[in-house]
Amino acid sequence: CQEAKKGRHAIMSVLKHKKVLITGATGGVGEALAQTFASLNCSIFLTGTNKKKLQLLAKKIGPRCQGYEVADFKNTESIENLLKIAKRQLKNVDILINCAGVFPVKFAKDTTFEEYNDCFNVNVTAPFLLCRSVIPDMIDRRWGRIINIGSSSAYAGFAKTSVYCASKHALLGLSRALHAELKEYGVRVHSVSPGSVKTKMGEKVEGQDYETFIDPDELASFIAHIISYDKNMISEEIRLNRVFVQ
Questions:
Q1: Alpha carbon distance 99, 149 (integer Å)
Q2: Are 62 and 41 in contact (CB under 8 A)?
Q3: Would you tell me which of 11, 16, 44, 91 could form a disulfide with 228, CB atoms 3.0–4.6 Å apart?
Q4: What pLDDT does residue 5 have?
Q5: Three-class SS of residue 209?
Q6: Number of helical (H) and strand (E) elements in the chain, helices listed first
Q7: Secondary element (H or E) of residue 2
Q8: Are the beta carbons of 44 and 153 closer than 8 angstroms?
Q9: What is the pTM of this model?
Q10: Nearest to 160 by CA among 103, 102, 101, 108
């Protein structure tokens, strides 16, 4: 118990008062992340697609929430508007967490080009645009964290998820490239790719036991832990598996 307290104190000392922009904040993982970082005395800006859910989450977080904005990540104008509002509220973004995602479950032969574009816009294009926007300030301050929430699908291919798998492979490639570009400036990019998580999205996974899925709160705590390291060690690319996988 004493060691756990020391560990939490170390995390708080690095992350205290940091300003965090979280996308997909009303999803299972996004909400867990928002509450975890708020508990570490970070200032949080939330974004998602459902205004009522954002309002409820903002209320849960309390004064640590610096604002929220509904955004459609299929639309670049909506992303640009979000960035203007978030930067106005936070002044700068110390930590960007790209958590928003869509999970189409469909055979490739039945997938429309519009569905393909929607998936890539949300899962890849939006993270790229958000990263591009916050990177200059992070470089100037010589400190920043970008966390791209990937998936085990970034390392494999599964039936009926061809477009999703392709998008997560692309996000992994983006994370690897950004890590190489930014590490010399003290800006760290983490690709975190969990297996199936106990969320609404996770309920769409076919042929697996939901009870074996990863707990979102545990995932959020793990992410806060890995980004708190501030010396020479970095966990740039992390795959998180389940103990029991069918």
A1: 5
A2: no
A3: 11
A4: 57
A5: coil
A6: 8, 7
A7: helix 2-15
A8: no
A9: 0.93
A10: 108
